[in-house]
Amino acid sequence: MNALDEVTESFSRLPGIGKKSAGRIANFLLRADESFVQRFATQVSTLKERIKPCSVCGAWTENDPCPICSDDSRDRKTLCVVEQPQDVATIENAREYHGLFHVLGGVIAPLDGIGPDQLRIASLIERVKKDGVEEVILATNPTVEGDTTALYIQRLLQDSGCKVTKLASGLPVGGDLEYIDRLTLARSFQGRASF
Hints:
Elements: H1 3-12, H2 19-31, H3 34-50, E1 52-53, E2 60-61, H4 67-70, E3 75-82, H5 85-94, E4 99-103, H6 121-131, E5 135-138, H7 144-157, E6 163-166, H8 182-190, E7 193-194
Parallel strand pairs: 3-4, 3-5, 5-6
Antiparallel strand pairs: 1-2, 6-7
Helix pairs in contact: 1-2, 5-8
């Protein structure tokens, strides 16, 4: 296996990139300007040391706490709970939500050996109590695992005195927030309902 094959193989391991797309990317890099390739390589090689989870919400950030948690203009009484850090960016791009976030780091999935203790559920409950959160919006993906996780959190919060809502219909069952268009996501926030 030569260097081109190795790079193609590595790119093909990325989500959404097949063998043909990986080959096109590798060939593009061979034809690209040397300064672009060097900058790209540096960005990829330093990504994990530069980007870390926010100590407050769990979203990806270069500065801790993240810009969202540090923004005093955000609604600090509303907390949107999502599965993964990339879901924060998806919701932010809709420009409909102005509160804070909490990233669980996954969903309850017993078949995969993931229980509530492997997720950031305990820190969520602590934030709700400590910060006087008035509404928790459960924005887990509309899958069996996402719904199970949302129901579990709703039950934990039912005596907390805070309102627990979920995103309204319009999100396809079995879909991921990452792939939802801005308008559908905005309408889901506007029409959210009590759990």
